[in-house]
């Protein structure tokens, strides 16, 4: 009998190519783009990433012999004195019992939710929490339930319903204080009251509020720091102009993450030079309040200038302009970029279906005149 011919093997990346083509058909294909034009897209809210004080702090650290690389994980040889100095100073600055420095907010959020809640516990989370929290939820041993955005009563109802079913584990409330795509703020005091009623622990993401709100830029949850039921994530790569993230909370939380938090245990420690820069950034928050004052003045100006074109007045540095349609959103963003304004379009799955938008981010890298020019161009573009 003759041998059956072998069918040709499919191209190695056929499925991936088809997936990318499908994204393109939906106007959702992403691509990296260079920085160009006036900054209306970054999270460098206080324009600290290029601040001479941060550069000088890094130069001083180099002169003191601080290395660029850590050389290993914190539990091996990577635990540099700069890491510990940063954690000590951050705990004092925010009024917390302890701090732990992570390489990124994504790693920190994933570690918190994957590590701290235990089997038999319940995580109640806002439906719009960041993808990094969803990564932790994917790995957690606890049960999890999503509730309506910024609805403290929904958090309370979910906790009560779970208890009514006879569950006795710990309840964890997870939310952000300032949402990066909507620019709106959580009802922090109400959520803290819910936590108190149910003896729950709060996991709070202050990524976009740190540096911008609160006394000395301590954030919207600053009044909760130091409470035994409160764990707060504050990123260093947004208003602080550096990178990495700090987890603030009770000492037992730090110790547990050091022993059980796999993203911490098995990651090379952040650069000691970055730790030195973050220390200086925290000092700048306290010593240079004018940065926050100028940003808040710019927020008020931008809300007046952009509201007439459909941008939502949020009271924060993030002003979304929802255009709904994916293709139209990206077309408008492209035309604004060609006119010299770095405004980016945001589409699903980053935001819910049908809510594609321009995310207009206000930073001290732009001026009131830049905002006025953007408003004029936006009016001409939208027609």
Concise account of the structure shown:
The chain is an alpha/beta fold. The chain has helices spanning 14-25, 52-63, 81-94, 105-115, 131-139, 152-164, 188-197, 251-260, 262-265, 272-287, 289-306, 326-338, 368-382, and strands at residues 38-39, 98-102, 122-126, 143-147, 171-176, 201-205, 230-235, 245-249, 318-324, 341-342, 344-346, 356-361. It has a seven-stranded mixed β-sheet with strand order 2-8-7-6-5-3-4, with helices on both faces. It has a three-stranded antiparallel β-sheet with strand order 9-12-11, with helices on one face.
DSSP E strands, number = 12
**Which percent bin holds the helix content?**
40-55%
Count of helical regions: 13
What amount of the residues lies in strands? 5-15%
CATH level-1 class of the largest domain: Alpha Beta
- What is the rounded distance between the termini? 73 Å
The CATH architecture name of the largest domain reads: 3-Layer(aba) Sandwich
- Can you list the strand order of the major beta sheet? 2-8-7-6-5-3-4
Number of domains: 2
Instruction: Give the integer mean of the pLDDT values.
Output: 96
If you compute it from the alpha carbons, what radius of gyration comes out, rounded to the nearest whole angstrom? 23 Å
Q: Can you identify the CATH superfamily of the largest domain?
A: Type I PLP-dependent aspartate aminotransferase-like (Major domain)
| CATH fold-level name of the largest domain | Aspartate Aminotransferase, domain 2
Class inferred from helices and paired strands? alpha/beta
| Largest sheet data | 7 strands, mixed
Low-confidence stretches: none
Q: In terms of quaternary structure, what is this?
A: single chain
**What is the H-and-E element order?**
HEHHEHEHEHEHEEEHHHHEHEEEH
């Amino acid at each position: 009998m003759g041998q059956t011919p072998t069918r040709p093997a499919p191209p190695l990346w056929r499925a991936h190519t088809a997936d990318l083509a499908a994204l393109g058909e939906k106007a959702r294909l992403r691509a990296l783009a260079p920085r160009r034009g006036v900054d209306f897209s970054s999270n460098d809210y206080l324009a600290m990433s290029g601040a001479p004080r941060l550069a000088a702090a890094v130069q001083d650290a180099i002169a003191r012999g601080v290395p660029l690389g850590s050389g290993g994980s914190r539990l091996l040889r990577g635990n540099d004195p700069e890491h510990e100095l940063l954690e000590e100073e951050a705990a004092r600055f925010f009024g917390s019992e302890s701090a732990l420095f992570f390489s990124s907010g994504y790693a920190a959020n994933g570690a918190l939710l994957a590590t701290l809640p235990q089997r038999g516990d319940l995580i109640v989370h806002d439906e719009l929490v960041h993808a990094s929290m969803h990564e932790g939820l994917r790995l957690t041993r606890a049960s999890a339930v999503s509730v309506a955005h910024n609805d403290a009563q929904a958090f309370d109802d979910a906790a009560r319903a779970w208890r009514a079913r006879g569950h006795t584990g710990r309840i964890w409330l997870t939310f952000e204080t300032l949402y990066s795509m909507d620019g709106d703020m959580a009802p922090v005091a109400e959520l803290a009251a819910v936590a108190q009623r149910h003896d729950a622990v709060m996991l709070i993401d202050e990524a976009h509020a740190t540096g911008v709100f609160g006394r000395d830029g301590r954030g919207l949850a600053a009044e909760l720091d130091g409470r035994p039921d409160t764990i707060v994530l504050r990123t260093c790569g947004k208003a602080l102009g550096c990178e990495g993230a700090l987890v603030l909370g009770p000492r037992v939380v730090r110790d547990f993450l050091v022993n059980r938090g796999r993203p911490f245990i098995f990651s090379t420690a952040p650069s000691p030079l970055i730790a030195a820069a973050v220390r200086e950034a925290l000092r700048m928050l306290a010593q240079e309040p004018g940065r926050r004052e100028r940003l808040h003045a710019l927020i008020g100006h931008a809300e007046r200038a952009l509201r007439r074109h459909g941008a939502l007045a949020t009271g924060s540095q993030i002003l979304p302009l929802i255009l709904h349609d994916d293709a139209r959103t990206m077309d408008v963003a492209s035309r604004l970029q060609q006119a010299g304004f770095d405004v980016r379009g945001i589409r699903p799955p980053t935001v819910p279906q049908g809510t594609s938008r321009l995310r207009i981010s206000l930073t001290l890298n732009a001026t009131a005149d830049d905002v006025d020019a953007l408003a004029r161009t936006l009016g001409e573009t939208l027609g």
